[in-house]
Amino acid sequence: MFIAVDAMGGDHAPGAIVEGALQAVEEHNVPVILVGDEDSIRIELERLGKEESESLVIRHATERIEMGESPIAAIRGKPDSSMRVALQLVKSGEANAVVSAGNSGAMLALAVTTLGTLKGVDRPAIVTAIPAVGGYTCLLDAGANTECKPLHFVQFAIMGEVYARLVRGIPSPRVGVLSNGEEDSKGTDLTRLAHAMLKKAHLNYIGYVEGRDLNNGRVDVIVTDGFTGNVALKSLEGFAHFFQGQLRTLFTASWKGKLSYLLIRDALTDLRASFDPSEVGGAPLLGTDGLAIIAHGASSPKAMKNAIRVAEEASRQDINRKIVESLQALPEAALTVPESKSSRRLWASIRDRFLHTRESHDPPAVAPEPPPEEEKKKE
Hints:
Isopropylmalate Dehydrogenase; 49% helix; alpha/beta; 5-stranded mixed sheet
């Protein structure tokens, strides 16, 4: 069960990538194929006092995709990139999953074009684990699809539920749709239609959830479009950095602050660990016909080790097969988009306006002239 690793992708490649892969092999017994420039990889292994082995294999690739490179240009112009070769190893069955900390746009595009999508999945989605009370909340989509349809939300919910249950170990994941309120009337046409469909799915669906529910442990899987999900994720990351900076300032400003830090240092270490993205490792791209993990561009060796661990766990749990089975088991009602009430109101408004306009342009009714016989009688 090899995991293909793009050794040339990321801000700190190949050094941090090779070191993280080596840690995954030694600590988690996960066989790894390092894909990239062979000479560069061997230099890093030599620096670490290691060499190629049965569980740490090198596959040469002549090109690398840079972090700021256009995904379209990379797809067309670099057929032997380390990222593409790693994905092809999954496609051919030589590897069970691929992990890359490289250009995320290129990774998304290459994963879809190289691996294709699972049966029943229209659009793959990125799922990311957000620190929450009692564990993590799975958020998807975290950036793959800026515009979605209600059916996509249903598919995201199924994929997220399977991931949370099998990889995160939650027996019956609670699923919710991100909205601006908990009432059924809140949200947009998209969320209201998806909300109605998910009520009919065989899920532990709890309805609408709000932004405050991202971290409070009330929900296990939150479904939204990629634009909203990415904004929510980046907002949380920004606040985490802000909060840590404020604490640092507080504890270094005076001798009282420094003394307070010594008293609660262990608790702060645990708090910092809960915000550390390297603990999670990477974000799986769910819905492709082959497992793909998108790691952070600035991934450390620890982050890469954990990303490889997540890839191995998802592969061992056969997550893709179970996603397909869950999609096929959905009742027809959960796949049928109901008519939007706002659409009915819109068409009724247009009809009324049209009728009113037509009536206002009709000539006024004129009373008919009496027949000649009646005129004579009156005389």
